Amino acid sequence: MPTSAISLFSQAIAVNLSYPRGTVKHFAVDGDVSSALSAVDLVIYGSFLEEQSFPEILVRAMSIGKPIIAPDLSMIGKYVSLNDFFIFSLHAQTD
After folding, report:
1. Residue 7: CB atoms within 10 Å
2. Within 10 Å of residue 47's Cβ, how many Cβ atoms?
3. Cα(16)–Cα(84) distance, integer angstroms
4. Is this model's pTM higher than 0.85 or not?
5. Which pLDDT tens digits describe the chain residue by residue (95 residues)?
């Protein structure tokens, strides 16, 4: 999905949740993430791809103490605890 489509998708979610315009932003990993991370309150890592290494964006966010929401991927679970992250399941829970 192109970055512009992801940005539009992010804005649609924000509007649906009644957040003020411009509150939710998407930053490409190859963009200026350092300044973006310093301005955010929370990082949501939405990739469901099993990475070969721990995602660089999460390393940067953790290094400056940002709370993180991420999927329950093996590479993420290998290096973090629930004290560091809010981990969500990739599979729907049934009652």
Report:
1. 15
2. 13
3. 28
4. no
5. 555 777 777 777 778 778 887 777 776 666 677 888 888 888 888 788 888 888 888 889 988 988 888 888 888 888 776 666 777 776 655 55
Angle at 75 between CA 74 and CA 77, to 5 degrees: 65
**C-alpha span between 11 and 26 (Å, rounded):** 9
Neighbouring residues of 88: CB distance < 8 A, sequence distance ≥ 6 = 69, 70, 71, 72
- Coil, helix or strand at residue 51: coil
Q: Rounded CA gap, 66 and 53, in Å?
A: 20
